[in-house]
UniProtKB/TrEMBL annotation:
UniProt xrefs under PANTHER family: BLOWN FUSE, ISOFORM A-RELATED, CENTAURIN/ARF
UniProt entry tagged with the keyword Zinc-finger: yes
UniProt-recorded name of the protein: Uncharacterized protein
Taxonomic lineage from the root: Eukaryota, Metazoa, Ecdysozoa, Arthropoda, Crustacea
Composition bias, Polar residues: 384-430, 602-613, 653-664
UniProt repeat feature ANK, residue ranges: 720-752, 753-785
Length: 852
C-alpha cells in the first residue's frame, strides 16, 4: 500500500496535491459519519441486550420461585430444576455475547474514530493555518521594491522559514491521511470479525449445552406425557362425582368411635359470642389431645387468644394445629364438663362448662349433637383417667421417695398433673420458670404442701374460692360439687391473676381446716370417715360433701346468754353476755402501699370509733393469744370487747412474698389500723360477721362467715344498705373484694344512696379495685340517686388513672353493643396497665429502699 501522494508533490504544493487532499478529506469525513452511526447503533444494541439479560434473569428468578411451589411434588420440581439450570447457563452466554459486542464493535471503532480520524482533522486545521501564512509571506515578498535591499533580504529569510514549516506540515498531514486510509480497512473488518467470533462461540456453547441437556429433556418429555395421562385418568374418574353426594350429616357416629383410642373429633359448630348481642358464628372445632380448639373456615387468624374463662386476664396463647393457628377454647378438658342446654330456644345446643366460664355451642343436626356430646364426655373421661394413671405410675416408679418433700422445692420425682397436657410449655419435663415459682410460692403457705382433704403430698390443684390446695382425686370431686361450692384451678396448667394469688396467700389449708374441721375429733366416729391418700372415691366424696356441702364440722358462732343467767363452765358452744360487744381485728400485713386511702373522703363511719387505749389492749391481746380449737377467740375477762379471729397465732404473711407473681397496683393495702367498729352481741350473726370482716379485710373471718351460711349480697339496713362488698371497697382492700367475687357476690348491688362498689372505688381513687371490678364486667351505666355514674364521680375526684380506666371500659362496652365479636380491648388494656403500674411500683420500692 502506498501513500496518497509522494513527498515531491507535497513540497511543490501543486493543484494535484491539493486535489488529492480534498478527495481524501471528503472520504475520511464520510467514513467518520458512517462509523459514528455504527457505534451509536451498537451502543443501543448493547443497552437493549443488557436489558434483555436483566429481564431474562428476573424471569429465571421467578421460575425458581415457581419451582419452590412444587416442593411436595418431587418429579415436577426435579424437572424444573434441571431446565432452569440450563436456562441460567444460556443466560450467562447471552451476557458474554453482549459484552463481546460492546468490546469488539463499540470500543474498537470508537477508538479508531478518536485516535485516527479526529487526529487527521486536527492536522488539517494546522495545515490550513500554515498554508495561509505561507501565502501571506509570498504575497509580501512579491511586493518588496528593488531599491530596498535590506527589506528584500529580510523577506527572503522569512519566505525560506515559512516554506520549510509548510513542507514539514504537509508531509505530516499526508502521512496521517495515508495511515488513516490504511487502518480503516483492517479496523472495520477486525471489529466485525471479533463480533462474529463471539457469535460463533455463543452458538457453540449453546449447542454443547443442548447436547448435554438432550437426555434430560427427553426424560422430562416422558414425564410430562405421563402427567398428562394421569390428569386424563383423573378426569375420567371424576365423571361420576355427583353420585357420591349425600344429604346426611358427615360426622363421626357413636358406633364408629373407638373407645380404645384417644378421642378425636372435628366438625362445624355454632358458637355464641360473649358480647351484648349474643350472636352465633359458625366455626370449625377440633377435639384432640385433651383440648378443644376452633378456627374460622377461611383465612389464618392474625391474633390468636385463649378464650378459656379460667384466665380473667385472657392471656393470648398460640397453638399450632395442622400448620395453622387456632383459638384455644379449652386448654385442658380435665377442667370441663359438658351438658345439654335445655333453657336455650335454639335446637341441638349444649354447654361446655369450665371453672370460670360457660361456652354455648350448637350442632347442625341431631346426629352431630349426639356425637359431639359423647366425644366430649369420653374425652374428659380419658383425660382424667390418663392423668390418674400417670400419677400411679410415678408413685410406683419412686417407692423410696419421701412422702413429704421439702417445702417450696421442686424435685424430679414430684408428679405433676400437667403431664397429660398437650401444650409443651406446661409439661413437667420443661416447666416454665414462672409456673415453677408459682408452685413454690403456693406450696410455702402453711399446710399447702399436702392436700387439704386427704393429706396427699404434692398437690397440683387448688380451689380458688376456698383458698386451698388439692390433689387430683379430690379436685375431681370438688369440680363435681359445682362452682357455687368450689372453683378448681390447676397450679401447673392455668394462668393465675395477681389478686387470686394474694387471696391464696391469706388463706391456705391450715386456716381453712381450722374453719371447716373446727369440731372434728379424729377417732370419735361422728360423721363419715376421714379421707386418706389411698381412699376410694366414694370415701373421698362422702368426706368432702360433709366438709363443704353440709358443713358438718363448722363451729357455730357463740350463743347469746342473758345477763341474769350464769354462764356454764363447759359447753359444746361458747356463750357470751348479751350486753357484751364484739369486734374483728384487722389483719396486719407488711405491705408497701402505693397510695394511702383517705376513708374520710366519704361518709363511711356512722358509728363511734374505739379509743386509743382500748385499741392498744385489743391489739396486744390478739398478738399474744394462743391458738384455740375454736376459730372464735374470746377476750380476757377484763375486756368488754369479744375479738373474733381465725388462728391468730399464725405468723403474719406479707403479700410481698408473691411480688414476683403479681403487681403492686393490684392492691392498695390496708385501711386504718386497729379493729373495726364494735358490734353488740345481739348482732352476732353470720351476715354481720361477714360485713365487719370485709371492713377489716380479714379473709379468714370472711371464709368462716361464708361457711356459716352468710349471705354475700346482704344489705345492712343500719349502715345505708351497704353490702359486704361496699365495706370491702371502703376498707381499701383488693383481696377482700376478690374473695367476695370468686365466692359469688354480685358486684352491681346498690346501697340506699344508689352507689355501687364501683362508685365507691372511683370516689376513693382506688385503682386496684377499679381494675378488679372492670375485669368482672360491672355495669358502667348504673347511676346513684344523684344521677351520677362512676365515671362522673371519677372526674370530680380528679384521679387520671381511674378516669382513663373507666373511659376505656366505656369504649369497649360500646364496641360490644355494636356487635364486635370477641372484643378484647378492655382485657388487653387492663393487663398492660397493671404491668405498667407494677414497674412503677417496683421502681418506687427501689427508691424507698435507697433512701432508707
Amino acid at each position: 500500500m502506498k501513500a496518497i501522494i509522494d513527498n515531491i508533490e507535497c513540497q511543490r504544493d501543486s493543484p494535484r496535491f491539493r486535489q488529492v487532499l480534498e478527495e481524501n478529506e471528503k472520504d475520511l469525513d464520510t467514513l467518520e459519519g458512517k462509523l459514528e452511526k455504527v457505534v451509536k447503533q451498537c451502543n443501543q444494541m448493547v443497552a437493549a441486550g443488557k436489558q434483555f439479560n436483566q429481564e431474562q434473569e428476573q424471569l429465571i428468578h421467578i421460575l425458581w420461585d415457581l419451582a419452590g411451589y412444587f416442593g411436595n411434588d418431587t418429579n415436577v420440581q426435579s424437572a424444573l430444576n434441571r431446565m432452569l439450570a440450563a436456562l441460567g447457563e444460556a443466560a450467562k452466554y447471552h451476557t458474554i455475547l453482549v459484552d463481546q459486542a460492546a468490546r469488539a464493535v463499540t470500543k474498537n471503532l470508537a477508538s479508531f474514530i478518536k485516535k485516527e480520524l479526529r487526529s487527521v482533522k486536527d492536522l488539517r486545521h494546522y495545515f490550513e493555518k500554515v498554508s495561509g501564512e505561507m501565502d501571506n509571506v509570498l504575497q509580501r515578498s512579491s511586493s518588496v521594491s528593488r531599491s530596498r535591499a535590506n527589506d528584500a533580504d529580510d523577506i527572503k529569510n522569512l519566505v525560506i522559514a515559512t516554506r520549510r514549516a509548510f513542507r514539514h506540515t504537509s508531509v505530516d498531514y499526508v502521512h496521517a491521511i495515508s495511515i488513516a486510509q490504511g487502518k480503516k480497512r483492517h479496523e472495520v473488518v477486525d471489529a466485525l470479525l471479533s463480533y462474529l467470533k463471539a457469535y460463533s462461540t455463543f452458538y457453540h456453547q449453546g449447542t454443547d449445552l443442548c447436547d448435554d441437556l438432550k437426555p434430560s429433556l427427553d426424560k422430562i418429555s416422558q414425564e410430562v406425557n405421563l402427567m398428562r395421562h394421569e390428569v386424563n385418568d383423573l378426569e375420567k374418574t371424576l365423571e361420576n362425582r355427583h353420585t357420591d353426594v349425600t344429604d346426611k350429616d358427615l360426622v363421626l357416629s357413636l358406633e364408629q368411635m373407638d373407645t380404645s383410642q384417644p378421642v378425636t373429633m372435628h366438625g362445624y359448630l355454632f358458637k355464641r359470642t360473649t358480647n351484648a348481642f349474643k350472636t352465633w358464628n359458625r366455626r370449625y372445632f377440633t377435639l384432640q389431645n385433651n383440648q378443644l380448639v376452633y378456627r374460622k373456615r377461611s383465612g389464618i387468624r392474625k391474633s390468636v387468644r385463649n378464650s378459656g374463662g379460667s384466665n380473667l386476664l385472657n392471656s393470648r396463647l398460640t397453638r399450632a394445629h395442622g400448620g395453622e393457628e387456632v383459638t384455644v377454647m379449652e386448654e385442658d378438658l380435665r377442667l370441663c364438663t359438658v351438658k345439654p342446654a335445655i333453657e336455650v330456644d335454639r335446637r341441638f345446643c349444649f354447654e361446655v362448662v369450665s371453672p370460670m366460664k360457660c361456652h354455648m355451642l350448637q350442632a347442625e343436626s341431631e346426629e352431630s349433637y349426639d356425637s359431639w356430646i359423647t366425644a366430649l364426655q369420653r374425652g374428659i373421661g380419658q383425660a382424667l383417667q390418663s392423668s390418674h394413671n400417670s400419677i400411679q405410675d410415678n408413685r410406683q416408679e419412686t417407692p423410696g421417695s419421701s412422702p413429704h418433700p421439702q417445702k417450696g422445692s421442686l424435685t424430679p420425682a414430684t408428679p405433676v398433673d400437667s403431664s397429660n397436657s398437650s401444650s409443651p410449655a406446661t409439661t413437667p419435663q420443661a416447666p416454665t420458670a414462672h409456673k415453677a415459682q408459682l408452685w413454690q410460692e403456693i406450696m410455702s403457705i402453711p399446710g399447702n404442701d399436702h392436700c387439704c382433704d386427704c393429706n396427699c403430698s404434692n398437690p397440683r390443684w387448688a380451689s380458688i374460692n376456698l383458698g386451698i390446695s388439692l390433689c387430683i382425686e379430690c379436685s375431681g370431686i370438688h369440680r363435681s360439687l359445682g362452682v357455687h361450692y368450689s372453683k378448681v384451678r390447676s397450679l401447673t396448667l392455668d394462668a393465675w391473676e395477681p389478686e387470686v394469688l394474694k387471696v391464696m396467700a391469706e388463706l391456705g389449708n391450715t386456716v381453712i381446716n381450722s374453719i371447716y374441721l373446727a369440731t372434728y375429733v379424729p377417732g370419735e366416729g361422728t360423721g363419715p370417715p376421714e379421707a386418706k391418700p389411698d381412699s376410694q372415691r366414694s370415701v373421698r366424696e362422702a368426706w368432702i360433701k360433709a366438709k363443704y356441702v353440709t358443713r358438718q364440722f363448722v363451729k357455730p358462732l357463740p350463743l347469746i346468754q342473758e345477763s341474769s343467767s350464769p354462764l356454764p363452765n363447759s359447753s359444746s358452744q361458747e356463750k357470751v353476755h348479751s350486753g357484751k360487744s364484739w369486734s374483728i381485728p384487722r389483719r396486719r400485713r407488711q405491705i408497701r402501699r402505693r397510695k394511702t386511702l383517705q376513708a374520710c373522703q366519704i361518709n363511711v363511719e356512722e358509728t363511734s370509733s374505739i379509743d386509743d387505749n382500748s385499741s392498744s389492749q385489743e391489739e396486744s391481746h390478739t398478738e399474744t393469744q394462743n391458738v384455740s380449737d375454736s376459730p372464735v377467740a374470746s377476750s380476757s375477762s377484763s375486756s368488754d370487747v369479744l375479738l373474733l379471729d381465725i388462728a391468730p397465732s399464725l405468723p403474719n404473711r406479707t403479700t410481698e412474698d408473691f411480688s414476683s407473681l403479681s403487681d403492686d397496683c393490684s392492691t392498695d393495702g390496708e385501711g386504718p389500723n386497729g379493729h373495726v367498729t364494735p358490734e353488740s352481741a345481739s348482732n352476732l350473726t353470720p351476715n354481720m360477721v361477714l360485713f365487719r370482716a370485709c371492713e377489716a379485710h380479714n379473709l379468714a373471718m370472711m371464709s368462716h362467715s361464708i361457711a356459716l351460711g352468710a349471705e354475700k349480697n346482704w344489705h345492712n339496713p343500719d349502715e345505708s344498705g351497704r353490702t359486704p362488698m361496699h365495706q370491702a371497697v371502703i376498707s381499701g382492700s383488693v383481696m377482700a373484694v376478690q374473695h367476695l367475687l370468686i365466692n359469688g357476690a354480685r358486684p352491681n348491688e346498690q346501697d340506699s344512696s344508689g352507689c355501687t362498689p364501683l362508685h365507691l372505688a372511683a370516689l376513693l381513687s382506688n385503682i386496684g379495685q377499679v381494675c378488679l371490678l372492670l375485669k368482672h364486667r360491672v355495669d358502667l351505666n348504673l347511676c346513684n340517686n344523684e344521677g351520677l355514674k362512676a365515671i362522673d364521680i371519677a372526674l370530680e375526684s380528679s384521679e387520671p388513672d381511674v378516669v382513663t380506666l373507666l373511659r376505656v371500659a366505656s369504649l369497649s362496652e360500646h364496641i360490644d353493643r355494636d356487635g364486635g365479636e370477641d372484643n378484647n380491648m378492655l382485657t388487653d388494656f387492663l393487663r398492660d396497665f397493671q404491668e405498667k403500674m407494677c414497674i412503677q411500683g417496683y421502681r418506687t420500692r427501689q427508691n424507698e429502699d435507697t433512701l432508707n
